[in-house]
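Supplementary Note 2. Why include the ligand at all?

Several targets in our set were suspected to adopt different conformations when bound, so apo predictions alone were not considered sufficient. For every target with a known small-molecule partner we therefore ran a joint prediction. The input for flavin-adenine dinucleotide is given below.
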Amino acid sequence: MTHDFDVLIVGSGLAGLSAALHLAPTHRVAVITKRSVSDGASGWAQGGIAAVLADGDSFDAHVQDTLVAGAGLCDLAATRFVVENAPGAIAWLRALGVPFSLEDGELHLTREGGHGARRIAHVTDATGAAVQRTLIDVVRQTPGVTLFEQHTLVDVITARKLGLPGAQRCLGLYALDDATDEVLTFRAPQTILATGGAGKVYLYTTNPDTATGDGIAAAWRAGCRVGNMEFIQFHPTCLYHPHAKSYLISEAVRGEGGQLKLPDGTRFMLDHDARAELAPRDVVARAIDFEMKKRGLDCVLLDISHQSPAFLHEHFPNILAKCAELGIDITTQPIPVVPAAHYTCGGVLTDLAGRTDLPGLFAVGETACTGLHGANRLASNSLLECMVFAQAAAQAIGAAPAAPAAKVPRWDDSRVTDADECVVISHNWDELRRFMWDYVGIVRTNKRLERAAHRITLLQAEIQEFYANFHVTRDLLELRNLVQVADLIVRSAQLRRESRGLHFSRDYPDMAAPAAATILVPPVA
Ligand SMILES: Cc1cc2nc3c(=O)[nH]c(=O)nc-3n(C[C@H](O)[C@H](O)[C@H](O)COP(=O)(O)OP(=O)(O)OC[C@H]3O[C@@H](n4cnc5c(N)ncnc54)[C@H](O)[C@@H]3O)c2cc1C
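The joint prediction is reproduced in token form.
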């Protein structure tokens, strides 16, 4: 079946839904999303959204804090653009009905690490969930938007791939419908990738299952450049438990005196940094990684049991309840934790309107590399980036000349059969995520990167064979994308012969001059 729209948006996180709402008054929009509309990282964001809203704060200060975090690699124009549009983005959310936390009728602003002022607008400690709830409600009542849940992007369709004469451009996409196992054709002159990050490429991640780098891999296959893929932000403390997936233990636990310990109860952070548990995120993550690798540990312990039960109930009710569910009483026991992949700073290269290298294809949100984050993301800048670039992309699409609809063939699966050995897929998923964790994690070396590159080459061949011969499934599509993204991360890391921001190499421990982004150029698609 072929669907025709003016704009296709892949992903229903904050980036995708914001773009849909900006476009809906004037365009017929399809939002294609691989699970339910509410699945994705946006709903999991806890802290909030950064914007200059307080007296005494300034755009220059927010820009400066972002540049410092980005360790010399932020694009100044992109940073200014996002910062200056932030108050408008918050006003837009308020107008839609997001119930931000208030104090005396004004927005209550918190302060987070790296920010020199109070500038984080939030909805208690569950900002993303409140924002997503509001946007989903509005989208459902917006006639111009058609929602396709349980539909997974397979690939974008380009004129060159179809062998059409004339200029190269994006003509639409193929998506797998879970309900029928059929690959559907979606045609539109404009497509926006808003598929989020790629945290699932690592064994431990704070990201939801949807974060498999699909948009990055699809854009790369369609001929778009990607940038800065080596910069993966690791959160130092994610709950480690066989039955707990991706549960983040807030940094506030260390802020309130939580101590990191080895299984025998020895504190170790002071051996790594004079600021101990209060050292910056990347320092703590590296220290935990060091201790785990040196001693062959599965996890370390975060102990906050010196605080009274009343204090813990008041300050950390959610963490307390989650741990209790798993049989851990944090009032008397330490919490097992590991560092975990948290945010993908790199992605598909875009301009200030979210345009990629492929005409007719945009990338917005965590899937994009706009230049805002540089070598390290400043807390609470990412939800903001989703909204600012979604609006910019919608404006660019609104101003674009109409493109004639092209004839697009239906998906051809006449030469493939059903897979007989699905175990290959689950095995390869596990293998990939484990070696990426061990070899391309928080601390890298030339040797480890070489090992990872070697394994990726083997996996790519195996998966390509599977893809060519069998009906596609969501697991296979995600694995294919994860391996592609792993390859991009490793190649970017190998090109960076220095340590900067989130990329730390034992072979090149110092920062080199001049600072330059890592840009990978795909083979001609
Ligand atoms: C635990 C946690 C806490 C965070 N806290 C904060 C915070 O306080 N402040 C902040 O600014 N940032 C925070 N972040 C980061 C922020 O949440 C993300 O960067 C942001 O939500 C990304 O939004 P997005 O729309 O780009 O992607 P997502 O919200 O992840 O949405 C991606 C969408 O694409 C869909 N999708 C993916 N692949 C396909 C495919 N092949 N086909 C169809 N659909 C597909 C997914 O199902 C999903 O709907 C946090 C992240 C995590 C994980």
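Residues 233-341 form a domain with the Flavocytochrome C3; Chain A, domain 1 fold (CATH 3.90.700.10). The mean pLDDT is 95. Comparable summaries for the other entries are listed in the accompanying table.
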